[in-house]
Design goal:
With 198 residues, the chain is an alpha+beta fold. It has a domain of 83 residues: Beta-lactamase Inhibitory Protein, Chain:B, domain 1 (2-Layer Sandwich), CATH 3.30.1450. It contains 5 helices and 5 strands; from the N terminus they run ααβααββββα. Strands 1, 2, 3, 4 and 5 form a 5-stranded antiparallel beta sheet that branches. Strand 4 and strand 5 form a beta hairpin. It starts with a helix and ends in a 38-residue tail after the last helix. 7% of the residues are buried. Keywords: Cell outer membrane, Membrane, Signal. InterPro entries: BamE (IPR026592), BamE-like (IPR037873), BamE_dom (IPR007450). This is Outer membrane protein assembly factor BamE.
Length: 198
């Protein structure tokens, strides 16, 4: 027992040795990798992105149908995102909030359309607010629109044009500038007859 008690006294008086360099390096690596690990867990998420013009209810509540004019609307909300195709008296303010999704399209968190209708004198007649639930999914079709022309491949187009290329107006006999030769006035360029106006 005496030996062990003496051993305790002798180690208690000594200074503690600093941690080895390897342990410190591991702690630094773990501390620097922590944000990346937490980012993968979703704790640190990307910020949502505003797209278009999101009109707050407080702002369009200031509009009063029957008294507000187009100028009042533009001063309060700014220029509209779109006008109706065949009716300039219908304005749309379109906006959405999206959040990025890894390996996919952004998810739409909020979507809003404010429709304003004016009369022919430019006075606001109605304010209608539409959101994501009012939308309709449109199915895409797999059909293609026919276009005029033939169904030739790129190689057929390239090979088919061999022999049609005529640099600098060379004729089939190897002369430059057509039948008149080099100095004639009926070739390409500003001096040719093809470029003169009546």
């Amino acid at each position: 027992m005496r030996a062990s008690a003496g051993h305790l006294r002798s180690t208690a008086g000594r200074r503690q040795r600093p941690a080895p360099l390897a342990a410190t390096a591991i702690a630094v690596v773990l501390a620097s990798a922590l944000p990346a690990v937490l980012g993968g867990c979703g704790i640190i998420s990307p910020l949502p992105t505003n797209r278009g013009q999101l009109i707050e209810p407080v702002d369009y509540a200031k509009l009063s149908p029957g008294t507000s004019t187009r100028d009042d609307v533009q001063n309060l909300l700014g220029s509209p995102t779109a006008h109706a195709t065949f009716d300039d008296n219908t304005w749309f303010y379109i906006g959405e909030v999206t959040a990025p999704v890894p390996m996919s399209r952004p998810s739409v968190q909020k979507q809003e359309v404010v429709e304003l209708k004016f009369d022919s004198a430019g006075v606001l007649r109605s304010v209608r607010r539409l959101n994501k639930q009012d939308g309709t999914n449109v199915a895409m079709t797999g059909r293609t629109t026919p276009s005029p022309g033939s169904d030739t491949s790129i190689m057929q187009q390239l090979i088919g044009n061999v022999g049609r290329y005529s640099p600098m107006g060379m004729d089939s006999l190897g002369g430059i500038g057509g039948s008149g030769g080099l100095g004639s006035n009926n070739g390409y360029g500003h001096g040719g007859q093809g470029n003169t106006l009546p």
